[in-house]
C-alpha cells in the first residue's frame, strides 16, 4: 500500500483528489495539509511515500515545503501541482529535486498513471517484495508479519544478485522503520546501524531472514510502546532473557501491570498471546545459533531455556511447520 499526502488549500480540489484516491486500490490518502506546519506534522506521523503539493500554499511556497520533506526522507516522491506553465520555473523545480509537475485541473487518469509508473510496486523496486508485510504491520499481526519475512527474504535471494542484496534489504528495512510515527532519517539510520547488515551476511539467507525479523520486531515494539510506554520494560526483558524460561507473571511485574492486562495488550498490538511471542523470539534466536555456531539441537534447546530437546523440537515444528533439522536441510538445499 502506497501512502499519499496532499498539500493544497483549495477545498474543491481536496474533494476531487479524495475521490480520485478512493478509486486507486493500491494507494491510500493519509492526510491533507493546508499549511507547512501541518504538512510536516502529517509527514512525520505517517511517512507517506508520495506527496502532491500545490505550488503556492497561502503565503508560503509548496516547493520549499517539499524540499524540507525531501531533506527528511530523500526517497519520497514529490509532485508539484500548478495552474500555470513557465518552462524556466519548471526546469528549476526539477533541478531542485522535485520528481514531476502536474497542470491543474488534473485528471484521474493522469494521477493514476503517474502513481503506477513511479510509486506503486510492480516488477521493479525493493518495496514490491513487502506489500503484504506493510499491510500486516498496519493490522498489528506479528505472526503473519513474521511469516511474510520468509517470503520477502526468499524473493530477494531468488531475484537479486549478492552484490545488490545489502542495498535492497536495507531499503526494505528503512521502509519498515518509517511505519513508526515520528521516525525521521536520523533515527532510522540509528536502527539500521544497531541492526547491522554486513555484506558477509548477505551470503546466507537465514541470517538475512533473521535480520529482517529483528527490524520487524523493532517496528512492532515501537508501535506498542507509543501507546503503552511501560510495555518497553516487558519487551526488553524478553530480549534479554531469551536464554531462560520466562513466565507471564515475570513480564507483568516488569511492566508494573497485571498479567491479564499484559495479555490484552499483546492481543491488541501483536494479535498473538504472550506465550506465542516468547516462543517466536526464542525460535528466532535458535535459527541464529544454527547458522553461526557448531551447537547441536540439544545444546541450542537447553541454552534457550527448554528442559528437553524433544519439547523444543515440538515447539519449533508448531511455529515453523518443520523440525529444526528439516529447517536447516531446507535452507541448505536453497543455498
Describe the structure.
With 335 residues, this protein is an alpha/beta fold. The protein folds into 2 domains: 2-118, 3-Layer(aba) Sandwich (Rossmann fold); 126-334, Arc Repressor Mutant, subunit A (Orthogonal Bundle), CATH 1.10.10. It has 17 helices and 7 strands. It has helices at 11-22, 36-46, 62-72, 87-95, 108-118, 131-138, 142-159, 162-177, 185-194, 205-227, 231-240, 248-255, 259-269, 274-292, 297-303, 309-320, 324-334, and strands at residues 2-7, 27-33, 50-54, 56-57, 60-61, 77-82, 100-103. A 5-stranded parallel β-sheet has the order 2-1-3-6-7, sandwiched between helices. Strands 4-5 form a two-stranded antiparallel sheet. Strand 4 (56-57) and strand 5 form a beta hairpin. Helix 11 packs across helix 12 (248-255), helix 12 (248-255) crosses helix 13 (259-269) and helix 15 (297-303) crosses helix 16. The mean pLDDT is 85.
List the helices and strands and how they pair.
Layout (H helix, E strand, L loop, with lengths): L1 E6 L3 H12 L4 E7 L2 H11 L3 E5 L1 E2 L2 E2 H11 L4 E6 L4 H9 L4 E4 L4 H11 L12 H8 L3 H18 L2 H16 L7 H10 L10 H23 L3 H10 L7 H8 L3 H11 L4 H19 L4 H7 L5 H12 L3 H11 L1
Parallel strand pairs: 1-2, 1-3, 3-6, 6-7
Antiparallel strand pairs: 4-5
Helix pairs in contact: 2-3, 6-7, 7-10, 8-9, 8-10, 10-14, 11-12, 12-13, 15-16
Provide keyphrases for this structure.
alpha/beta, 17 helices, 10% strand, elongated, 335 residues, two-stranded antiparallel ribbon
- Low-pLDDT runs of 5+ residues are none
Report mean pLDDT, rounded to a whole number. Answer: 85
* Structural class determined from secondary elements: alpha/beta
Query: Main beta sheet: strand number and arrangement?
Result: 5 strands, parallel
Note the gap between the termini: 31 Å
The number of domains? 2
Strand content: 5-15%
- Would you report the number of β strands? 7
With strands numbered from the N-terminus, the spatial order across the biggest sheet is 2-1-3-6-7
Helical run tally: 17
Amino acid at each position: 500500500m502506497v501512502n499519499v499526502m496532499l498539500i493544497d488549500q483549495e477545498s474543491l480540489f481536496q474533494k476531487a483528489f479524495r475521490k480520485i484516491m478512493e478509486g486507486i486500490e493500491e494507494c491510500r490518502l493519509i492526510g491533507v495539509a493546508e499549511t507547512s506546519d501541518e504538512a510536516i506534522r502529517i509527514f512525520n506521523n505517517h511517512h507517506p511515500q508520495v506527496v502532491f503539493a500545490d505550488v503556492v500554499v497561502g503565503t508560503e511556497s509548496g516547493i520549499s515545503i517539499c524540499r524540507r520533506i525531501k531533506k527528511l526522507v530523500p526517497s519520497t516522491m514529490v509532485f508539484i501541482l500548478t495552474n500555470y506553465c513557465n518552462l524556466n520555473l519548471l526546469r528549476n523545480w526539477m533541478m531542485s529535486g522535485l520528481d514531476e509537475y502536474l497542470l491543474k485541473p488534473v485528471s484521474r487518469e493522469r494521477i493514476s498513471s503517474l502513481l503506477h509508473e513511479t510509486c506503486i510496486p510492480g516488477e521493479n523496486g525493493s518495496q514490491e517484495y513487502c506489500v503484504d508485510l506493510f499491510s500486516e504491520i498496519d493490522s498489528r499481526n506479528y505472526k503473519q508479519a513474521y511469516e511474510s519475512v520468509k517470503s520477502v527474504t526468499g524473493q530477494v535471494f531468488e531475484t537479486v544478485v549478492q552484490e545488490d542484496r545489502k542495498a535492497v534489504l536495507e531499503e526494505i528495512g528503512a521502509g519498515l522503520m518509517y511505519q513508526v510515527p515520528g521516525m525521521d532519517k536520523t533515527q532510522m539510520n540509528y536502527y539500521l546501524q544497531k541492526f547491522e547488515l554486513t555484506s558477509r551476511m548477505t551470503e546466507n539467507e537465514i541470517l538475512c531472514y533473521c535480520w529482517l525479523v529483528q527490524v520487524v520486531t523493532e517496528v512492532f515494539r515501537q508501535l506498542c510502546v507509543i501507546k503503552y510506554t511501560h510495555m518497553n520494560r516487558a519487551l526488553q526483558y524478553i530480549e534479554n532473557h531469551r536464554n531462560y524460561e520466562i513466565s507471564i507473571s515475570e513480564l507483568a511485574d516488569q511492566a508494573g501491570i497485571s498479567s491479564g492486562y499484559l495479555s490484552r495488550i499483546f492481543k491488541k498490538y501483536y494479535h498473538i498471546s504472550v506465550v506465542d511471542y516468547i516462543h517466536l523470539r526464542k525460535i528466532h534466536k535458535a535459527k541464529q545459533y544454527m547458522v553461526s555456531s557448531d551447537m547441536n539441537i540439544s545444546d541450542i534447546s537447553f541454552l534457550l531455556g527448554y528442559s528437553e530437546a524433544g519439547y523444543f523440537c515440538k515447539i519449533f515444528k508448531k511455529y515453523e511447520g518443520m523440525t529444526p533439522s528439516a529447517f536447516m536441510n531446507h535452507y541448505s538445499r536453497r543455498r
